[in-house]
Design goal:
Layout (H helix, E strand, L loop, with lengths): L9 H11 L3 E2 L1 E6 L5 E6 L2 E6 L2 E5 L11 H9 L1 E6 L5 H6 L10 H4 L4 E3 L6 E3 L4 E12 L8 E12 L18 E3 L4 E4 L11 E3 L9
Antiparallel strand pairs: 1-11, 2-3, 2-6, 4-5, 5-10, 6-9, 7-8, 9-10, 11-12, 12-13
Length: 214
């Protein structure tokens, strides 16, 4: 089978790409508006860029009306954001924050997600996340326009927070206990499991929330 991207709608092409590019780690991105209102939303087009300088990237697509998502709008105005990593324990909370709330609504408060202060940026992070990275904006690039238009955000990592119970006595990360999740196609996710609970490394279904803005 051959697929010509020029012959597909944006939605059809999105489905093909997200079902083929798997598994995708999830950036649970927290930002704050110029008015001081926090925002929290997940993005699965996410990865590291490099360690010199320490940089990460994620790609927030435009909303269905062609306007930037709140996350991108906040970053463009403040130049700051935090990326919180998602474990299986946080899967439901992460998914809940993907609901289309209005600009200016705080997903931390609506979904009862505890905040913690960052050290070098004026953005809250997810208090119970297995790890969070404080970032300053390096580059925000518009790649596409209109509904679903692609945007690339590159952030410079200023500080990393790792939950203490994941640190070995040697001060190294015990990666076997992360139990992170990754996005597959449609509503499917994959759980990495842990060294002690390897049978839980499996696919699971997590439908997107249907609720609309409050």
């Amino acid at each position: 089978m051959k697929i010509d991207p020029e012959e597909l709608s944006t939605r059809e092409l999105y489905q093909w790409m997200t079902q083929l590019i798997t598994p995708r780690p999830i950036a649970w991105v927290s930002t704050v508006s110029p008015d001081g209102i926090a925002n929290l939303a997940p993005f699965s087009f996410f990865n590291g860029v490099g360690a010199n300088p320490p940089t990460i990237m994620f790609c927030p697509a435009n909303q269905r009306d062609g306007t930037p998502k709140d996350t991108l709008a906040n970053i463009q105005r403040t130049g700051q954001f935090a990326v919180n990593l998602v474990s299986f324990a946080d899967a439901d909370a992460m998914n809940a924050t993907s609901a289309p709330y209005r600009f200016g609504q705080d997903e931390f408060e609506i979904e009862s997600i505890a905040k913690a202060d960052c050290d070098q940026i004026k953005v809250p992070r997810v208090a119970d996340a297995i790890a969070s990275m404080e970032c300053s904006l390096h580059t925000a690039m518009q790649i596409g326009t209109g509904p679903g238009g692609a945007n690339l955000v590159i952030g410079r990592v200023l500080q990393i927070h790792v939950r203490q119970d994941l640190i070995l006595p040697s001060q190294e990360l015990d990666a076997s206990r992360l139990d992170t999740i990754g996005r597959m196609g449609r509503d499917d996710y994959i759980r990495t499991g842990s060294e002690e609970d390897v049978e839980n490394a499996s696919l699971f279904d997590l439908p997107r929330p249907k609720k609309r803005s409050l």
